[in-house]
Amino acid sequence: xxxxxxxxxxxxxxxxxxxxxxxxxxxxxxxxxxxxxxxxxxxxxxxxxxxxxxxxxxxxxxxxxxxxxxxxxxxxxxxxxxxxxxxxxxxxxxxxxxxxxxxxxxxxxxxxxxxxxxxxxxxxxxxxxxxxxxxxxxxxxxxxxxxxxxxxxxxxxxxxxxxxxxxxxxxxxxxxxxxxxxxxxxxxxxxxxxxxxxxxxxxxxxxxxxxxxxxxxxxxxxxxx
Length: 225
Known about the structure:
There is one protein chain. It is globular and about 50 Å long. A 5-stranded mixed β-sheet has the order 2-1-5-3-4, with helices on both faces. Strands 6-7 form a two-stranded antiparallel ribbon. The chain folds into 2 domains: about 1-115 and about 190-225, Ubiquitin-like (UB roll) (Roll); about 130-175, Alpha-Beta Plaits (2-Layer Sandwich). By secondary structure, the chain is an alpha+beta fold. Helix content is about 25%, strand content about 10%. It has helices at about 20-25, 80-95, 100-110, 130-135, 170-175, 220-225; strands spanning about 1-5, 10-15, 50, 60, 75, 145, 150-155.
């Protein structure tokens, strides 16, 4: 067993576990987009970032790919982590504002603005469809192509794949394909129709970490009333 501290709580988890697995087992919520049980970890979306270490050596890592270490200190909802997640959600909204999955995540994390150029893409390159096709459907019909801004997902040489069985598994796991948000105005990238309140504890300058991890937060529910 590996001994570590998550949000000030000393815990012991199995060796080889990721921080995400350990946190979920203990009930600490960490948002994810490119992670799905049964598929390999990829760490593409960066929504699952957590803060490890202390002082000037503290850094952000993706919890779905970082394995637990002896004596590791983890914070899943520090002010630094929450700020990073909001930035990631803004970028995701800039790429695919019609994804209801992304819209709901943005609302849940109190994202109220989107400061980047709107792209209106149909893909956020999370790689879920590729891993589903290869690891669950045993087909490997699709994959990543090119690099940088030219990166995309498709079949080799854009030719019809003989390996594809039209099972629909790729569409089933795709956060851009599952549900489409009907609210669509270019100048208002964030729907806000499913808006939730942000944790009031992080709004106080004296707090760097969330005070509780209940869902919904008791303090938020009181403030709502």
